[in-house]
Design brief:
It contains 9 helices and 8 strands. The chain is α/β, with parallel strands linked by helices. The chain folds into 2 domains: 163 residues, Glucose-6-phosphate isomerase like protein, domain 1 (Rossmann fold); 51 residues. A 5-stranded parallel sheet has the order 5-4-6-7-8, with helices on both faces. A 3-stranded antiparallel sheet has the order 1-3-2. Helix 4 links the parallel strand 4 and strand 5. Helix 1 packs across helix 8, helix 3 packs parallel to helix 8 and helix 5 packs across helix 6.
Length: 256
Amino acid sequence: MKNDAKGADTRLNEIHFGQALIEEMFRAGVHYGYSKTRRHPSVSSFIYATKNKGDIIDLEKTSQMLGGAMEFVKGLGAKGKTILLVGTKPEAQAAIKSGAETLGMPHVTERWIGGTISNFGEIKSRINELENYRKESREGGLEKYTKKERVVMAKKMEKLVKYYGGLVGLKKIPDALYIVDARSEHIALTEAIGGGVPVVALVNSDSNIKDIAYPILGNDASVPSINLFTALIVGAYKEGLATLAVPNPTSEKKEA
């Protein structure tokens, strides 16, 4: 099984919501929850069993949650909406970056900057600053500064690239978020909920799923698990996006 976010459209066509998907999730270790003592009450009905003090997630129920999430994301793609992909833990960074680049969508793989949603105006000013610097650099405009000034600017831009580089091109508050490990990304989750931005989130058994619009219960600490879900979410968006470019025959007849 490939453990990357590329080829998501092929994967989407191959996997059906049945035994094949459950078997793939099992191979990716999706069923491994945390210890029973860490279980959040909101996920109790999604736990299949407890073995060696660890919770085993019911993959049939995870498959149902995934189906709902993918339908939502497919709808985003069909409308050309913006989805911000978020995953700052080391296990998630590669999949999030790859998935975002595949879709041409913004992403956060370093620290979530407080205010990204709740104070977007300030965040947008930082993005603009980075974009302007890059434009000036391409056009040779930095030559007017002294060597010392250029060194200072370069250091500042290096920091902006690290924390805002993935947000370049984001013109407004995103229409939705895809989050890996909502518990770790609690600030992003809180801002999204407060701002009325729907969230699709891969969560483990220690998470409160009550306020998450589209939770997907599964192992959020395993690279294969993270890659599998991210690939499927990316594939769902691409499938929806493909319909955006397809003209509606009914509409064409009416226009004719």
